[in-house]
Design a protein that fits this description.
Length: 265
C-alpha cells in the first residue's frame, strides 16, 4: 500500500492507540482526519504532528448521531482508511451498572462504528482501495466476569465486522478487525464506575497494571496487518493465548485462563 496516497479518518485520536496511529501514519506520509471528543487531547496530538500538511482535527462526539451524519460535509478530503477506534469502559457487575451507563458504552463502542461505517461507506466505495479498521478487544474474544457491557459491545463489533466483510467480499473495500490485549491507554482512568464503589482506585490500578504494551507498538501491528491484507489482527501475547485457549476449550476457557493467571502470580 502506498500510504502517501491515503487519507485516514481516526476516531478517538486524542490518546492511546488512536494517537499512536496518527503519529505512525503521519510518519508514512498519510493525510489525516483526526477526531476526538476531548479537544485538549486532540490539540496535543496536532502539536506532535507540527500541524503538518494534510492534517485536519475535528471535535466529534461519536455518541451523537447528528454529529456523525454532519461529519462528511466538514472534511477537506474523502477518507480511504476508516479507523473506528474510539472506545470507553464501564466498571462493575451487570446488576450494579446503571442502565444509562450501559447504554452510553454501547452507543460509543458499538453503535458509533456502525453509524460511521454507514455514513462513510459511499465515500469509501469511490476509492480504488479502501479499508475499514474496527478496534474490538481481547474482550471480544473472551468474556470475563465484570465486563458485561464492554464484552457486549466488543463481541458485537466483531460480529458486525465479520458479516460486513462477507458482504463486501469482491469489492474494493476490506474490513479488518483488531483485538488488542493489554495496551497502555487511558481507558481505565476514563472508565465510568457505579455509584458507591469504595475500591474504585484499586480497581483502576489493577486494570492499569494489565495495560502494558506501548500503544506505538500496537499501532505498528495494525498497520502491518493492513499492508498484509489481514482480516483479523491479535495484538499482544495475551490476546494470542486467550484466542487459542478459547478456540480449543470453548466451554471451559475461563477457568483455564484463571488457573494460568494464578500460576504466574
Amino acid at each position: 500500500m502506498d500510504w502517501t496516497r491515503q487519507t485516514a479518518l481516526i476516531t478517538g485520536a486524542g490518546s492511546g492507540i488512536g494517537r499512536a496511529l496518527a503519529n505512525a501514519l503521519h510518519a508514512r506520509g498519510c493525510a489525516l482526519i483526526l477526531t476526538d471528543i476531548d479537544t485538549a487531547r486532540l490539540d496535543r496530538v496536532a502539536e506532535e504532528l507540527d500541524g503538518g500538511p494534510g492534517v485536519q482535527c475535528l471535535r466529534l462526539d461519536v455518541s451523537d448521531p447528528a454529529a456523525i451524519t454532519a461529519l462528511p460535509a466538514q472534511l477537506g478530503a474523502a477518507p480511504t482508511l476508516l479507523f473506528n477506534n474510539a472506545g470507553v469502559a464501564v466498571g462493575g457487575d451487570f446488576e450494579t451498572i446503571a442502565e444509562s451507563d450501559f447504554d452510553w458504552l454501547l452507543s460509543i463502542n458499538l453503535i458509533a462504528p456502525i453509524r460511521m461505517t454507514r455514513t462513510f461507506l459511499p465515500l469509501l466505495r469511490e476509492a480504488p482501495e479502501a479499508v475499514i479498521v474496527n478496534i474490538s478487544s481481547l474482550f471480544g474474544l473472551i468474556a470475563p466476569a465484570g465486563q458485561t457491557a464492554y464484552c457486549a459491545s466488543k463481541y458485537g463489533l466483531r460480529g458486525f465486522s465479520d458479516s460486513l466483510r462477507h458482504e463486501l467480499s469482491g469489492s474494493s473495500i476490506r474490513v479488518m478487525t483488531v483485538h488488542p490485549g493489554g495496551v497502555r491507554t487511558a481507558i481505565a482512568d476514563d472508565a465510568r464506575l457505579p455509584a458507591g464503589i469504595n475500591d474504585a482506585e484499586e480497581g483502576r490500578e489493577r486494570m492499569n497494571a494489565f495495560l502494558k504494551m506501548p500503544p506505538e507498538d500496537a499501532a505498528e501491528v495494525i498497520l502491518r496487518g493492513i499492508e498484509r491484507k489481514k482480516r483479523r489482527v491479535l495484538i499482544g501475547r495475551d490476546a494470542r493465548i486467550a484466542a487459542l485457549i478459547e478456540r480449543i476449550f470453548p466451554d471451559s476457557y475461563w477457568s483455564r485462563l484463571s488457573r494460568l493467571s494464578q500460576s504466574r502470580q
